[in-house]
Design a protein that fits this description.
24% of the residues lie in helices and 26% in strands. The chain starts with 7 loop residues before the first helix and ends with a strand. Helix 1 packs across helix 7 (206-214), helix 1 packs antiparallel against helix 15 (556-572) and helix 12 packs across helix 22. By secondary structure, the protein is α/β, with parallel strands linked by helices. The protein contains 24 helices and 41 strands. Strands 1-6-5-4-2-3 form a six-stranded mixed beta sheet, with helices on both faces. A six-stranded mixed beta sheet has the order 23-24-25-26-28-31.
Length: 921
Amino acid sequence: MGKYYLDMEEYKGLARQAAAEGCVLLKNENNTLPVREGENVSVFGRIQFTYYKSGTGSGGLVNTRYVTGILDALRAEGSIRVNEELAGVYEAWCAEHPFDKGKGWGQEPWSQEEMPLDDKTAARAAQVSDAALVIIGRTAGEDQDTKAEPGSYLLTEKEKAMIRTVSRHFARTAVLLNVGNIIDMKWVEDCAPSAVLYVWQGGMEGGNGVADVLTGRVSPCGKLSDTIAASIEDYPSAADFGGQYENVYAEDIYVGYRYFETAARDKVLYPFGFGLSYTKFAVTTESFREEGEDILLQVRVKNTGDSAGKEVVQVYANPPQGRLGKPLRSLAAFRKTEVIQPDGEEILSFRISKKELASYDDSGVTGHKSCYVLEEGCYGFYVGTDVRSASFAGAFVQETLTVTERLEEALAPVTPFCRMKPVGEGDSFCMQKEAAPLRSVDLAQRILENRPASPVCTGDRGILLGDVYDGRADMEDFLAQLTDEDLACIVRGEGMCSPKVTPGTAGAFGGVTDRLQHFGIPAGCCADGPSGIRMDCGTHAFSLPNGTSLACTFHEELVEKLFEKEGLELRRNRVDLLLGPGMNIHRNPLNGRNFEYFSEDPYLTGKMAAAQLKGMGKAGTSGTIKHFAGNNQEYSRNLANAVISERALREIYLKGFEIAVKEGKALSVMSTYGPVNGLWTAGSYDLLTTILRKEWGFDGLVMTDWWAKMNEEGEEGDTRNTAAMVRAQNDLYMVVSDAQANTGEDNTMEGLADGRITRGELLRSARNICRVLMRLPVMDRFLDRISEEELREQREGAGEDAQFLDLVYQEVGRDTALDISSLSTEKGASTVLGVKLLHKGVYAMQVTARCSAGELAQVPMSVFMNHGVVITFTMNGTDGEWVTRSADLGEFRFPHQYMKFYFGQSGLELGEIRMILKEEF
């Protein structure tokens, strides 16, 4: 086995373990769980047949070979039995009430119609079963926020009635929540199930991971990565979430538990970091001491129960209020134990840098504007297994105010607003308002003062990027060869489904024109994530647990190991960058893409993202941390202006990204669709240059989200304004169909001509792009330096999907006969053809074929287009006569498409297949 061999069994095992360790047990009375050996289990809820492996949109479109749901996994268990009589009742009902997939992008309903449950059915199930499982399912995703209504954030009356009915008839009723994000939990007290378990959306191995927890092979050890409040209205962002044109972040740094533990403790049902186990642990702080600028703790974890399990130790800081005001609790460190046997113990060590406790002064109230400061006073530390139960462990006294980092004002708001600030003492605080500081710097002047030099074009001197890669040439000499037109092309990414890279992926970047490739610049490949590789041509990939599930593991090492496998899978599919991890803060539970993201806490978010990047980095691939920044709702995401204080940005919404850059060594960043403080982020200089590059030292590339907008301050966003993009040091516009032809009609060359941007700024982006390409596998692929062993393993691992690796594209005009010489019509044969459509529009397919069998014979041929079945031609026997059949393929707006032909029976002879343009756009 080679260095980059992907062991699929290990991959499955790690994904299964992650799904299990992410499960969060909120309640477990009457010893409901685990289910004991030999017991019979009744499973209620229609979602038992259609497990949600992920949410919807680009983060969920992973084409898997299988998905193991919870019922599938339980049926495969040898130690317990499933009530198949009840399963049959549900199966029959679901056949008459099929799963509603919705109609198009972002249109799948949040939940499915539930089967009404009567007492007779529940009573019969209770007669033959020892325990009941009730599965509730929810989805949401891109372009589709959750809503505070039944069937979405709230349970429906049918669902609540089902739980009540089952709970009346079963002393042991466990509700399993197959959801991407937290939901309303008031029903727990009302419906009174004896156990509640968040199982999240665990990817293709999710059901197996859940079964491991249900049967007790794994004791629950997941912890909530979000606070569950009594009502959606209790979240401090509720009053300003979901706006079409603007959302004011008046809660400021008081997001999630930072708000609740400071000023609304009584509004919490389940605190941040909470999660039960099948066993019990005693957590005690053995030592607490200062060592220079660090705090060192040793914490003993002892299993005082009667079964093995893991525990998560969490350390929270309680800084002095000072002049700035601060949350009473902030997560400062966490670690997960190994499996501890009954009466066993483990000692965990923590080292916390004092400077990590500093607060950002955006107003100058401390006398140190635009600085991180440690205000004088007592800094307390609390240790425990959730934020609420954590007990005092020690403290240090900061005698005088200390500046830990001097920065410069950046990305401050321009819209006046008031933000929260706590007032009180001890543990009793309420929130008052103060005016948020506004921008005081001249941004245009800052940009002008920091413009790079603009070397003239030297023309082609024969220097290739490979020469720079091998140390034979200087990057500046190489770049100087590129003309202005070359530079305008290199900042354009191509997609979707560019023929220059792996079929079905999101985009190509770098060498997207013949001239750029002439200079030895390869075309790098990026594919949608974050929970697996999206390849719309139908190539199979591994679906991972979602971001929330992974965050709830609180297990950095496990996540890193899992994403090392993901990195190897990327490499096997010739994908260089995964478009993930998603890192936006769970500001509000209703954000539709919360399933892709990790937590309401920036420290946990950053650590999980860094773990993923470290893992992928071991395979030579990497991720693209997104969406930078403030992408906290899906509704009106390309329009709604996020009004956020500089302090809240730095301490909450950017902090996780900072950790990912500094600890995870991120190579690639994706900006967002919308504006923050009046500037669309894809053209925000302070965000992408002042903070990301100057302050954090980021030396990778920044790409836009797909078809994002940019703007000049005071103007509306425009997808064509790449001059603003380049000036901000957002290096790549994603995506256009043809970079050379400038099909996106961008204004790069116009901006260069009128001085809005300079050649030096374009060279800066080209340098960023080329530097990243040289750090990714594509460089060795382009130079034919991938080992024969790795190439062989790629093809063997891909199996039938190997035909996608080197796809050739046929041009299709208004009426074109396809070259079908490569098609095999044997039973079970599957062949892929690539086509390049020269016109946008509605197409039909015309098939001429014959079958020597009689007229009662049936020979099916299915045509898959970009992931799904479009049409199936079923030919009857034609006694050897040629016949022609036609069918509509639908509308196509991108030129490069993939068609997979599958033959369910032998005996069909193909004469001709034509693609015909019926309606041009």
